Backbone:
């Protein structure tokens, strides 16, 4: 991608964030876990297990240490940077998950434009609404959000137009989004390698997914590279009814050229397209219903055409009573390699999650989660000599302490 | 004499004139009171409804200096009623910055990103409803009702508001609430007498859903 490389785009946002301007807001959050898991060897350690913490990673674990900076820059510009450390086998001990510059002018006549430049998540998860792109409902996000956190990041330019209907006496607001981006050509490679996962381990911008592969032929674990010099795009729309209901749709296409290789990471540009929809309804009684759906394909062509179809659906019901929240979620996920459910590369599964959380609203948040994932993964037989079917469960306790301030 | 002193004197003169008018009026015909009760469709009281009583011959109430604060990512109060030509100060009691705007036809303005010290007050010279928002926090929503009526107020917990010392005569009564869902403006003509009078206004439709409360501020809305 001609003018700037990935690092230059990201550090542009960082440099602007550090320029002297209005007071900046900062936040640091330490999330420590106590884990009991019977999970198979995790995908983070090159296994075919679905969980972040497997049988060999129980006990006290670092959930995440996160630092965020929000720096206004003049009247209508601001920069946002999110850095995290996860204490695992990623390339860098601390790395960025998002870094972008935002232009947010004053609304006029009910319309407002917003522009973001840098690296950030596309606006598609109504679940990951807490700071640091975390879900407040459970510890482990849905299969869809787990995958987005693992493989998808916009490194580019996004524009939004808001029609602020509720400020004009109407009951609805509307938002349209369009973006062009690069440096996400490997998106899809993890779906091909291990399918969907259930984890809150967001892939960092300069890092990789977990431990390095001992076999360099399978080293493809870095996701934010530009391989084919073709920009991708997404377009989306969001409709809101007061502050009660949000419907979000997104069409994503990284326009990868699946024939172009990148020898340094032993990977190709994956042509990944998907449609995503999400609906969130909240009631005055503290209930939340959240439905999500994802449907797409990913393709590479290293001399022969390889195609994976994937889809996932998720339904969550949560009840909030003051600082307490109970949530239950059901997920289904499916990857189909060449239309053959028995081929390595295909998978079929479902998951239940049950979580209780207590958020003091100030510094502390505690959460307890039970998660069970059942999956049929033919690759387990071929690659690992395991049974194709696995039922993996974990119980996880999270204690998170957040400090914030301004300077 | 400073501008502030001048305003005090003007206000004092207004008050004195009104008192004189009230006294003169009471000498001829004794003022009464009017109690307005606003009930929802299901008979529950409508709390916080804005009630205005207008009479063509009467001037608007004297302008006031009011405050619309920002506390814990919310405007406080959620509804502010002010007479025409009043000034409103917008302090920010939060530790974080806000960016207040309105593009309502009654008053369009914006207060660039700020925290701490407030900007000079905003003057409201047109009657109407001004919808406020914060450009940083889209869930922040409040209203300023600018009225040319001589008498106005908001209903209390029992859904009532009382206008004491009301000179007898015909008044145009308006009721407004941010959650109102009525097909037309809620308007009545009432006659105030020397006695105590009362009127009940009952809504024909259910209210629109109230804004959700208690969600953590850190959530994306």
Residues:
């Amino acid at each position: 991608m001609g003018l700037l490389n990935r690092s230059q785009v990201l550090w542009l946002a960082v440099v602007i964030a550090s320029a002297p301007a209005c007071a900046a807001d900062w936040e640091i959050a330490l999330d420590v876990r106590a884990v009991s898991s019977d999970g198979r060897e995790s995908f983070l350690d090159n296994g075919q297990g679905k969980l972040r913490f497997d049988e060999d990673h129980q006990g006290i674990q670092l959930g995440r240490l996160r630092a965020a900076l929000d720096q206004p820059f003049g009247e209508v510009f601001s920069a946002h940077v999110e850095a995290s450390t996860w204490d695992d086998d990623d390339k860098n001990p601390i790395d960025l998950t998002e870094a972008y510059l935002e232009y947010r002018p004053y609304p006029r006549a009910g319309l407002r434009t917003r522009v973001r430049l840098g690296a950030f998540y596309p606006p598609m998860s109504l679940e990951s609404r807490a700071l640091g792109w975390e879900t407040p409902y459970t510890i482990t996000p849905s299969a869809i959000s787990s995958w987005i956190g693992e493989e998808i990041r916009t490194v580019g330019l996004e524009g939004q137009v808001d029609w602020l209907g509720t400020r004009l006496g109407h009951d609805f607001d509307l938002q349209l989004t369009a973006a062009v981006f690069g440096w996400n050509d490997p998106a899809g490679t993890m779906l091909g390698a291990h399918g969907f996962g259930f984890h809150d381990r967001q892939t960092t911008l300069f890092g990789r997914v977990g431990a390095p592969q001992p076999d360099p032929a399978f080293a493809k674990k870095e996701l934010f590279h530009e391989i084919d010099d073709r920009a991708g795009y997404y377009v989306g729309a969001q409709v809101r009814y007061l502050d009660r209901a949000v419907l979000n749709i997104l069409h994503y296409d990284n326009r990868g050229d699946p024939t172009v290789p990148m020898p340094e990471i032993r990977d190709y540009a994956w042509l990944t397209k998907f449609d995503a929809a999400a609906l969130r309804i909240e009631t005055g009684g503290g209930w939340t219903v959240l439905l999500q759906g994802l449907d797409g394909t990913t393709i590479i062509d290293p001399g022969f055409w390889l195609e994976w179809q994937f889809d996932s659906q998720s339904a969550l019901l949560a009840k909030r009573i003051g600082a307490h929240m109970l949530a239950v979620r059901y997920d289904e996920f499916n990857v189909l390699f060449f239309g053959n459910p028995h081929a390595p590369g295909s998978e079929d599964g479902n998951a239940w999650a049950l979580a209780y959380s207590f958020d003091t609203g100030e510094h502390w948040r505690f959460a307890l989660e039970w998660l069970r994932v059942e999956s049929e993964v033919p690759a387990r037989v071929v690659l690992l000599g395991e049974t194709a079917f696995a039922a993996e469960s974990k119980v996880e306790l999270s204690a998170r302490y957040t400090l914030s301030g301004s300077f | 004499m400073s501008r502030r002193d001048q305003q005090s004197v003007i206000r004092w003169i207004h008050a004195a004139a009104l008192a004189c008018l009230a006294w003169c009026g009471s000498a001829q015909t004794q003022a009464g009171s009017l109690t307005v009760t606003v009930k929802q469709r299901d008979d529950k009281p409508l709390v916080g409804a804005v009630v205005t009583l207008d009479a063509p011959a009467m001037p608007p109430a004297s302008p006031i200096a009011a405050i619309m604060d920002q506390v814990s990512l919310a405007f406080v109060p959620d509804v502010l009623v002010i007479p025409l030509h009043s000034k409103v100060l917008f302090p920010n009691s939060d530790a974080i910055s806000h960016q207040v705007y309105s593009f309502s036809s009654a008053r369009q303005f914006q207060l660039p990103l700020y925290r701490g010290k407030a900007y000079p007050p905003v003057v409201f010279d047109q009657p109407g409803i001004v919808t406020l928002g914060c450009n940083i926090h889209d869930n922040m929503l409040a209203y300023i009702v600018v009225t040319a009526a001589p008498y106005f107020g908001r209903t209390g917990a029992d859904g009532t508001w009382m206008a004491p010392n009301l000179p007898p005569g015909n008044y145009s009564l308006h009721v407004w609430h941010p959650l109102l869902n009525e097909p037309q403006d809620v308007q009545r003509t009432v006659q105030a007498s020397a006695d105590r009078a009362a009127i009940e206004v009952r809504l024909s439709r259910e209210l629109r859903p109230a804004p959700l409360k208690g969600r953590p501020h850190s959530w994306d809305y």
